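Before the break, one more example. Copy the sequence into your notebook; we will annotate it together after we see the structure.
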Amino acid sequence: MADIKNMIEDIKGMTVLELNDLVKAIEVEFGVSAAAMTSSAPAAAAAVEEKTEFDVILTVVGAEKIKVIKAVKESLGLGLKEAKEIVDNAPKTIKEAISKEAAEEVVAKFKEVGATCEIK
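Here is what the structure looks like once it is written out:
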């Protein structure tokens, strides 16, 4: 164990050029690549995964509040009071875990009545 501590102390005292030479020597000696060790394969795999469920958030009601309340009422099948509460408390999630196409349809519907929605 003392040898490892001595090696670490020796490494701490090296210059950048000496460290670079050490890495190259280790790569040659053991047939490995330092680049492969620093690669983040799980992060790359996560980036490839495509999102399939989206939420639609009512962010800005706009000037036509009554039309937006009606759109919320129709989209969610709510009563007038519940729809008004959602509009009054914007930004508010109005649809959760829906397909991208469905989310885009909802956004388009609200855009027609002057509201702004965001897909997340």
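The helical segments are 2-12, 16-30, 34-38, 41-48, 65-76, 80-88, 100-112. The mean pLDDT is 84. Try to locate both features in your own notes.
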